[in-house]
């Protein structure tokens, strides 16, 4: 049995004259949570649609379970679960009715279907709402039903598009506990898109996209370690002037981002003290933080994550 579930090579896709993907390559291994991270318009949803067999790519190769998404989409669909960002539930049906009709699409019937529905409703904590119309449920509860639906037929690969949309902070924590349990206890491979860096931080592997291109890929810790120290952000009255003065005095290479001075440096606490002591009259505020995946994005692209939204 191959350890690679998803294999993508030089994948491109265009909408008319607009190129959404520009030669993307990556692998997803069995039993991992793989995150596609990027700002809106970065290419995440296009990749999601191709890998979920919603449409074929313009060029390049994409295979799931060794099957090409162009030539064998029906084989792939039987083995994947898909949860879309936009709601796919019938709001005029109950939770139970939505799951039952979805099960029929995968050939589930009778006691087997009832057992599986009960299992999924219990796992996603919606059993007490089984006879409620979907339109009466909160956004968080609807999201849980979406997950129950996507997992009903025991997929080997679960593909999620922005899974925490509509969830409050508590719901997001519950979602991640469940996703990690799926990976650890049932061996389900999970591929998800997200625009939230803290969510991508929970993944085993991350692919960062920007304007259809791969910005970075690897484990979250490895990517953050590339930054090489703490991140210091300084707000100043004259940021360009102060940037040049800091560079000259401390031998560092500060960047100017959205009108703020940004420095990546080991021993950030000591550096902040030195900068404040040297230029206190020019500084409005200073923040010090450990590197995040957004810092990786900034280091690779030269601009902030949300500037593409």
Structural key phrases:
alpha/beta, four-stranded antiparallel β-sheet
Notes on the protein architecture:
With 309 residues, the chain is α/β, with parallel strands linked by helices. The protein contains eleven helices and 14 strands. It is elongated and about 75 Å long. The model has no long low-confidence stretch (mean pLDDT 91). The longest helix is centred in the middle third of the chain and has 18 residues. 36% of the residues lie in helices and 28% in strands. The relative contact order is 0.14. The protein has a six-stranded mixed beta sheet with strand order 6-7-8-3-9-10, with helices on both faces. A four-stranded antiparallel beta sheet has the order 2-1-4-5. Strands 12-13-11-14 form a four-stranded antiparallel beta sheet, with helices on one face.
Map the helices and strands:
Elements: E1 4-15, E2 18-29, E3 33-37, H1 44-51, E4 59-64, E5 67-68, H2 73-77, E6 80-83, H3 95-105, H4 110-123, H5 139-151, E7 157-161, H6 169-186, E8 189-194, H7 197-200, E9 205-210, E10 213-218, H8 220-225, E11 230-236, H9 239-250, E12 255-257, E13 260-265, H10 268-279, E14 283-289, H11 293-301
Parallel strand pairs: 3-8, 3-9, 6-7, 7-8
Antiparallel strand pairs: 1-2, 1-4, 4-5, 9-10, 11-13, 11-14, 12-13
Helix pairs in contact: 4-5
Number of helices in the DSSP assignment: 11
DSSP summary, beta strand count: 14
Largest sheet: 6 strands, mixed
The helical percent reads 25-40%
User: What structural category arises from helix and sheet content?
Assistant: alpha/beta
> In which order are the strands of the major sheet placed?
6-7-8-3-9-10
Strand content of the residues, in percent? 25-35%
- Poorly predicted runs are none
Principal-axes geometry comes out as: elongated
Order of helices and strands: EEEHEEHEHHHEHEHEEHEHEEHEH
The pLDDT mean sits at 91
Radius of gyration, in angstroms, nearest whole number: 23 Å
Report, as a whole number of angstroms, the end-to-end distance: 40 Å
């Amino acid at each position: 049995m191959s350890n690679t579930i998803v294999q993508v090579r030089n994948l491109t896709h265009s909408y008319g004259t607009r190129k959404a993907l520009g030669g993307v390559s990556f692998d997803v291994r069995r039993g991992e949570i793989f995150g596609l991270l990027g700002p809106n318009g970065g290419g995440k949803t296009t990749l999601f649609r191709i890998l979920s067999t919603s449409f074929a790519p313009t060029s390049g190769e994409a295979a799931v379970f060794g099957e090409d998404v162009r030539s064998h989409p029906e084989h792939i669909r039987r083995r994947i679960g898909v949860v879309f960002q936009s709601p796919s539930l019938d709001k005029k049906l109950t939770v139970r009715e939505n799951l039952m009709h979805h099960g029929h699409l995968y050939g589930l019937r009778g006691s087997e279907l009832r057992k599986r529905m009960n299992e999924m409703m219990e796992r996603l904590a919606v059993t007490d709402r089984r006879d409620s119309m979907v339109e009466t449920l909160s956004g968080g509860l609807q999201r849980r039903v979406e997950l129950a639906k996507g997992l009903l037929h025991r997929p080997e690969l679960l593909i999620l598009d922005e899974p925490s949309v509509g969830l409050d902070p508590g719901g997001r924590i519950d979602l991640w506990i469940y996703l990690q349990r799926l990976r650890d206890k049932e061996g389900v491979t999970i591929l998800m898109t997200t625009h939230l860096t803290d969510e991508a931080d929970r993944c085993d592997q991350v692919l960062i996209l920007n304007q259809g291109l791969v910005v970075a890929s690897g484990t979250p810790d490895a990517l953050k370690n590339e930054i090489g120290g703490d991140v210091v952000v300084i707000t100043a009255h004259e940021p360009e002037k102060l940037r040049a003065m800091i560079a000259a005095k401390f031998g560092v290479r500060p960047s100017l981002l959205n009108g703020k001075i940004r420095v990546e440096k080991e021993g950030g606490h000591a550096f902040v003290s030195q900068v404040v002591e040297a230029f206190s009259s020019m500084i409005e505020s200073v923040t010090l933080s450990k590197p995040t995946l957004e810092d990786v994005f900034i280091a690779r692209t030269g601009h902030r994550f949300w500037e593409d939204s």
